[in-house]
Amino acid sequence: MAESGKIYKIKIADSAADFIRKQTKKNQRQIMNKISSLAHDPCGKGDRIKSKPEFFKIRSGVFRIAYMVKERQVVVLVLRIGHRKDFYRYFER
Fold first, then answer.
1. Which among 10, 29, 58, 89 could bridge 46 via Cys, Cβ 3.0 to 4.6 Å?
2. Helices 14-21 and 25-36 meet at what angle, rounded to 10?
3. Cα angle vertex 12, ends 9, 14, to 5°?
4. Tens digit of pLDDT for each residue in 16-54?
5. Cβ count near 75 (within 10 Å)
6. What is the pTM of this model?
7. What structural domains does the chain harbor?
């Protein structure tokens, strides 16, 4: 998993960035603060998504953020952000 002292670069997929742009300023700050916190320990912060074990998820208020950790490139790729009521539909088998 993540080494101590290693700082990961954060990349946000276009669809996730669009979701953030559509939110209120307060929610934008909340989501971006949570995403920024992944740079230091992405594997320790989130839980794996059961149906897609290569993805992690974290909570940010009523929102869920799905991301992947690319160890070799030292990158956290934020793939999906959504409201908790319909976030998991995207990951159903």
1. 58
2. 140
3. 150
4. 999 999 999 999 999 999 999 999 989 888 899 988 889
5. 15
6. 0.89
7. 9-91 (3.30.2310.20)
